[in-house]
Write a structure and sequence with these properties.
two-stranded antiparallel ribbon, 5 helices, 2 strands, globular
């Protein structure tokens, strides 16, 4: 797939751990892991909005498209 998820990079830049982000977002650690590894087939806009709010970033900072 040509969509790259840079969530782990943004989290490292913001110095926020998965445990903390899970609490802020109200999602399970397993769901966060699926998002971070790029194995998610979809993401809700509400979840994406919450991530952007928590990490003070734009959706384009988290999601990137690269041709295969």
């Amino acid at each position: 797939m040509g969509i790259i998820v840079n969530l782990d990079v943004i989290m490292a830049q913001r110095k926020i751990q998965s445990k903390e982000l899970v609490q802020i977002l109200g999602i399970t650690p397993a769901n966060l892991s699926i998002l971070k590894t790029g194995k998610a087939k979809a993401i809700r806009f509400t979840t994406l909005e919450s991530i952007c709010k928590a990490l003070d970033c734009q959706p384009g900072d988290i999601l990137e498209y690269k041709k295969e």
